[in-house]
Amino acid sequence: QAGFASRQGGLAKVSETSSIQVPRLSGFLAQFTRGLAPVGRVIVRDKRIQGHAKGFGAPSSSSKNNISAKKKPFKGTCPCGSSRDYTDCCATYHTGQLAPETPEKLMRARFSAFAVGNSKFLISTTHPRNPEQPTKEELENHFKGVRCVKLEILSHSIASNDRKGHVRFCATQELVRGSRRERFEFTEDSTFERDPDSGNEWKYVEGKIIS
Asked: What is the C-alpha to C-alpha distance for residues 38 and 50, in angstroms, rounded to an integer?
């Protein structure tokens, strides 16, 4: 969410008085929902929701709904937090004009891909070593129920051999179920590595939820 956790799902209790069904996901997403916390509250350690999102990673294979409607092109400020227009920012990565030059830029681009519903980019930037490879259907079913609100990059680094990198980020998302919405946030350490089979481009390997 963003890494990739076990394929668990169920009822995510985000407050003492309310609960909503969350999609069965793992990995960012789950690089995005493992160990969810409502904004301003302590982390919720409900094992039924662990594995919902990391590094902006992979949903589980439990999604079975068919997706058919075409999405409208996204316009406006880029969701990655750069304050730039989307067409001049992450869209250049999403359309294949450029490849993210660093793990940080890939992290931002993957968050934006979740925000705008670009399953193709998320699949293509998931490293082959990631244990859970997302499918288009799983990702697009996820897009229906989760809205990406905010991404904050806390730290990022690249190993001296320029083959492996880490990004720590805090993501805010919103679970949408009809008229009901629950906002949550989590902090994750994501690992990225270059993929020799794709021109040594950076790809998302896994993530670990910190809080």
From this structure: 14
Q: What is the per-residue pLDDT across 77-118, written as a single tens digit (0 to 9) for each? A: 999 999 999 999 999 999 999 999 999 999 999 999 999 999
Could you tell me the two tokens for 184?
């949550």
Q: How far apart are CA 109 and CA 100, in angstroms?
A: 8
In this predicted structure, the answer to whether residue 32 has a pLDDT above a threshold of 90 is: no
The candidate with the shortest Cα–Cα distance to 60, out of 10, 110, 128, 117, is 10
**Complete DSSP assignment for the chain:** ------S--EEE--SSS--EEE--B-HHHHHH-SS-EETTSPPP--GGGTTSBSTT--B-TT------PPPPPP-SB-TTSS-SBGGGTTHHHHTTSS--SSHHHHHHHHHHHHHHT-HHHHHHTB-TT-SS---HHHHHHHHHHEEEEEEEEEEEEE-TTSSEEEEEEEEEEEEEETTEEEEEEEEEEEEEEEEGGGTTEEEEEEEEE--
Beta-strand relationship, 37-38 and 164-177: unpaired
Q: What's the one-letter identity of residue 180?
A: R
Which amino acid makes up residue 1?
Q
